[in-house]
Amino acid sequence: xxxxxxxxxxxxxxxxxxxxxxxxxxxxxxxxxxxxxxxxxxxxxxxxxxxxxxxxxxxxxxxxxxxxxxxxxxxxxxxxxxxxxxxxxxxxxxxxxxxxxxxxxxxxxxxxxxxxxxxxxx
Length: 122
Fold this sequence. Notes:
The protein is mostly beta strands. About 0% of the residues lie in helices and about 50% in strands. It contains no helices and eleven strands. The chain has strands at about 5, 10-15, 20-25, 35-40, 45-50, 55-60, 70-75, 80-85, 90-100, 110, 115-120. The strands form two sheets. Strands 2, 4, 5, 6, 9, 10 and 11 form a seven-stranded mixed beta sheet that branches. Strands 1-3-8-7 form a four-stranded antiparallel beta sheet, with no helix packed on it. The N and C termini lie far apart (about 40 Å).
């Protein structure tokens, strides 16, 4: 089984940037689509972005297009989420996930990390 460990979250002022990282251990990471999801208190989990094993980006939420960038480094077994121009609405727990189907459906992602908290203040 895969193990996913996120890092890079924290508190930032509106307009700031953060880069989240997700290190994946276990075989075979490289076969999986990777995604980032987030969940704010009292809200449903939502997909943020996803990327295929070959680096093709298959999804961005409309709310993050132009501000967030997903990428992966297969040599380092790591997927990243660069987040720029953060706003209060981005406050959430961010989780990375691995799955066979590369889309925005959380049910298609089998393995999940514990998450890293992002808090944006105005």
